[in-house]
Amino acid sequence: MQYAKPLLFFLLFCTASIVSHAQTMPSQLSMQDTLFIQYNRMGIKTYQHQVRPGQTTNSLKEYFRLTDEEWDFFNPQPQQKGQAVFPSQSVIIPIPNRAIIRYERANNYDSKKCIPIYHIVSKGETFFGLHKRSYNIDPEILKKRNGLTKTSLKVGQRLHIGWFDISGVPPAQEGTVPISPEAQEMMPYRDRYFERLRYSDEFEHSGMAVQSDAKGIRYGYKVYHEYAKIGSCIRITNPARNATVYAEVVGRVPVNIKRQYIGREILAVYNFKIKKALGLVDQQFYAVIRFMK
Question: What does each C-alpha distance from 2 to 5, 9, 14 come to in angstroms?
Fold first, then answer.
């Protein structure tokens, strides 16, 4: 028994060291932060995070409970596992519904650990759509929280939706699907794009893209494109919504569509599924496209 006290002291010292280390671990977010999120028409709410010194892909994935596949989907530039991302670099983080605390009376609300979440209104969004379908918040409480006397909204307006616990995103319930079905359907095209990028040169151009219900691209992530290798995949970005999709090129822009836009070069033709994924309202938009020949 002569070793009992030294052993007990050693165990207490180790425990204290572990607790102290946990307390000094840098937090990914602080009480001075505010989350500004946007509702993606694919059903995903996202937050643009500015990377801070010491943060890595692994620390951010652990904090926001993202799988490798989810991280790669929202941040498609290849990163080595655990590699430090650059300070001030911007990364896209999906915010699941379970991480949004809607009411101060909720059991998981703690004013000492919770920071505000604001929704940035985009074109086409309505008060009803936000309180009912997107966030499921009592409309009168949402109006009072934001000092609203009417329900009309302006593009760029910020609505205080709720709060986020800086302890991190809580674990998902068993059976929860982390990425929407639409995003999961797109993943093979994204993977093919980056696989080809390993041995091909990447080009980028920007210009007009238009919607069509042409039979060849009516379903799935299929597009017509003027220059990309047929059968390859391209990356299409809507800069107005910071939304990106990957799609397979199945042909060139048809002559009959070109005739509808005489004097304007049409770079790509897309379908309704891609329109929805990019958060588009009109049937044409200014696109930024990356592709390989």
Answer: 7, 13, 20
Name 225's bridge partners: 268
Cβ atoms within 10 Å of 118's Cβ, excluding its own: 16
Give me the half-sphere count of Cα atoms (radius 13 Å) on the Cβ side of residue 110: 7
Instruction: Report pLDDT digits (tens) over 203-212.
Output: 999 999 999 9
Helix (H) or strand (E) holding 118: strand 114-120
List b or e across 85-117, with b for residues whose CB sees 16 or more CB atoms inside 10 angstroms.
beeeeebbbbbbeebbbbeeeeeeeeeeebeeb
**C-alpha 114: how far from chain center:** 21
CA angle 244, 249, 251 (to 5 degrees): 140
71-75: long-range contacts, CB 8 A cutoff, minimum separation 24: 72/190, 73/179, 73/183, 73/186, 73/187, 73/190, 74/46
Selection from 102, 103, 75, 107 nearest residue 91 by Cα: 75
Nearest to 220 by CA among 258, 179, 185: 185
Q: What is the pLDDT of residues 238-283, one digit of tens each?
A: 888 778 899 999 999 999 999 998 888 999 999 999 998 888 888 9
The rounded Cα 58 to chain-centroid distance in angstroms is: 17
Q: How far apart are CA 105 and CA 250, in angstroms?
A: 53
* The two structure tokens encoding residue 278: 């990019």
Amino acid in the structure at residue 206: S
CA distances (Å), origin 146, targets 11, 61, 70: 52, 32, 32
39 pairs with which residues across the strands? Answer: 45
Q: Decide: helix, strand or coil at residue 79.
A: coil
pLDDT at 284: 92
Residue 205: both structure tokens together: 């151009």
